[in-house]
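Risk register update: the risk of archive-format incompatibility is retired. Evidence:
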Amino acid sequence: MVETWTLLLNDIPDELGMAAFAAHCRANVHPPTPADIRAAATVHTALPSPGEAWAEVMQAARQIGYQEGVVPEMTCPEIRDAARAAGWSGICFADSEMSLSTTRAHFFRIYDGMRERGERQQLRTALEGSVPPGLLPRLKRVDEARPSHRGQISERAAASE
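Archived output:
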């Protein structure tokens, strides 16, 4: 049983897993399942929404401003990287509401892409832990597993035309 739990939760840092376990135990009568712990850990690690991230960037632009082109530290690296990619100088020195709106739209698009990439990476990491190591090299994509059937189907389709 312990090995199963370890396999299911191995990608979650210990501190985060313990915090999720404790939060579940405080709010529920029954002990958590691995899915409960994973769900609680996901809530704690979720990135801020694009609107929240933009608010943080604007607050940093007002309080810290442009200092030799260095983007200040933010609560998470994705926000800082999106601010850098959207143009930190454009954020700090926007001369009109229109130019700031354009920069904001670029920031949202860049930040959304970073969030999606992070979510895909988390999913990939979770999937890697769910397949036994000896089985993974033997798995093939569906289209690689049966190439002969594809040719037969194409031949049948051509013959029926």
